[in-house]
């Protein structure tokens, strides 16, 4: 599979990939985040670059070393990720949104360290912007691929996101299984296209999943 893609099937294509979690500050020393490691997105970036694409990786905070053959943009918050992606979006051929973007952020960000007080603490959260939905609404030539993390009704929730966000395809992750997904080197996904094509990728290393996904996506983009 990998060798097949090394022949440069994505030569001349610009690919935008988002990866990792976002961090939403509460005060000077605290933030909200999630368990995303960034691995899936980084492997996708490597696979796309290996296939000859010009790869732009927009990444939230991740411990991983950035691949050297991709153009990397480091961001922290969902808002920063939105700004960076929108700046790049118009020139892209393929966009893959693997990032685990925070759905909520604190209404107030306090610049100082909050002092503890007696009793419970309530932090009010507001919705962040749905970056992927925005991209779907402003889609032109781009082949747009989203991700879905689900713990139940995996396929139907995934399909719903594909339609609601005007995607060309979605990669559905079952995160109820702790052996795979978020922090793991392994994953197991379903690739679903808007035309109803459905491909299951059995449990494998994220590196192998990434090269299969890039191969599927490349094939789909040749259809239209
Ligand atoms: N996403 C995004 N911006 C957000 C939230 C999510 O771009 N503010 C993108 C993710 O990068 C992913 C897709 O939307 O590609 C699906 O994310 P997911 O968390 O599974 O779904 P949500 O639409 O956020 O819905 P929910 O968390 O309620 O299931
Ligand atoms: Ca979400």
From TrEMBL:
<dbReference type="GO" id="GO:0004632">
    <property type="term" value="F:phosphopantothenate--cysteine ligase activity"/>
</dbReference>
<feature type="binding site">
    <location>
        <position position="147"/>
    </location>
    <ligand>
        <name>CTP</name>
    </ligand>
</feature>
<feature type="binding site">
    <location>
        <position position="165"/>
    </location>
    <ligand>
        <name>CTP</name>
    </ligand>
</feature>
<keyword id="KW-0511">Multifunctional enzyme</keyword>
<keyword id="KW-0210">Decarboxylase</keyword>
<feature type="region of interest" description="Phosphopantothenate--cysteine ligase">
    <location>
        <begin position="15"/>
        <end position="224"/>
    </location>
</feature>
<comment type="function">
    <text>Catalyzes two steps in the biosynthesis of coenzyme A. In the first step cysteine is conjugated to 4'-phosphopantothenate to form 4-phosphopantothenoylcysteine, in the latter compound is decarboxylated to form 4'-phosphopantotheine.</text>
</comment>
<protein>
    <recommendedName>
        <fullName>Coenzyme A biosynthesis bifunctional protein CoaBC</fullName>
        <ecNumber>4.1.1.36</ecNumber>
        <ecNumber>6.3.2.5</ecNumber>
    </recommendedName>
</protein>
<keyword id="KW-0288">FMN</keyword>
<comment type="function">
    <text>Catalyzes two sequential steps in the biosynthesis of coenzyme A. In the first step cysteine is conjugated to 4'-phosphopantothenate to form 4-phosphopantothenoylcysteine. In the second step the latter compound is decarboxylated to form 4'-phosphopantotheine.</text>
</comment>
<comment type="pathway">
    <text>Cofactor biosynthesis; coenzyme A biosynthesis; CoA from (R)-pantothenate: step 3/5.</text>
</comment>
<comment type="similarity">
    <text>In the C-terminal section; belongs to the PPC synthetase family.</text>
</comment>
<feature type="binding site">
    <location>
        <position position="113"/>
    </location>
    <ligand>
        <name>CTP</name>
    </ligand>
</feature>
<feature type="domain" description="DNA/pantothenate metabolism flavoprotein C-terminal">
    <location>
        <begin position="10"/>
        <end position="218"/>
    </location>
</feature>
<comment type="similarity">
    <text>In the N-terminal section; belongs to the HFCD (homo-oligomeric flavin containing Cys decarboxylase) superfamily.</text>
</comment>
<keyword id="KW-0479">Metal-binding</keyword>
<comment type="pathway">
    <text>Cofactor biosynthesis; coenzyme A biosynthesis; CoA from (R)-pantothenate: step 2/5.</text>
</comment>
<keyword id="KW-0285">Flavoprotein</keyword>
<keyword id="KW-0436">Ligase</keyword>
<feature type="binding site">
    <location>
        <position position="103"/>
    </location>
    <ligand>
        <name>CTP</name>
    </ligand>
</feature>
<keyword id="KW-0456">Lyase</keyword>
<feature type="binding site">
    <location>
        <position position="161"/>
    </location>
    <ligand>
        <name>CTP</name>
    </ligand>
</feature>
<dbReference type="GO" id="GO:0004633">
    <property type="term" value="F:phosphopantothenoylcysteine decarboxylase activity"/>
</dbReference>
<keyword id="KW-0460">Magnesium</keyword>
């Amino acid at each position: 599979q990998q060798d097949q893609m090394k022949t440069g099937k994505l030569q001349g294509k610009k690919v935008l990939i988002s990866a990792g979690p976002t961090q939403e500050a509460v005060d000077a020393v605290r933030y909200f985040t999630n368990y995303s490691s960034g691995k899936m997105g980084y492997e996708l970036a490597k696979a796309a670059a290996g296939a000859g694409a010009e790869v732009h990786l927009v990444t939230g905070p991740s411990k991983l070393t950035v691949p050297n053959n991709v153009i990397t943009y480091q961001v922290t918050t969902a808002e920063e990720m939105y700004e960076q992606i929108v700046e790049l979006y118009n020139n892209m051929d393929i966009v893959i949104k693997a990032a685990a973007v925070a759905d909520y952020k604190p209404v107030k960000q306090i610049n100082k360290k909050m002092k503890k007080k007696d009793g419970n603490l309530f932090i009010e959260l507001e919705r962040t912007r749905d970056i992927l939905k925005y991209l779907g609404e402003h889609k032109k030539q781009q082949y747009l691929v989203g991700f879905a993390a689900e713990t139940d009704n995996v396929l139907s929730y995934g399909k719903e996101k594909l339609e609601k966000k005007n995607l060309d395809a979605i990669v559905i992750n079952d995160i109820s299984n702790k052996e795979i997904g978020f922090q793991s080197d392994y994953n197991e996904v379903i690739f679903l296209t808007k035309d109803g094509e459905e491909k299951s990728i059995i449990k494998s290393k994220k590196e192998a999943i990434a090269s299969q996904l890039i191969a599927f996506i490349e094939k789909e983009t040749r259809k239209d």
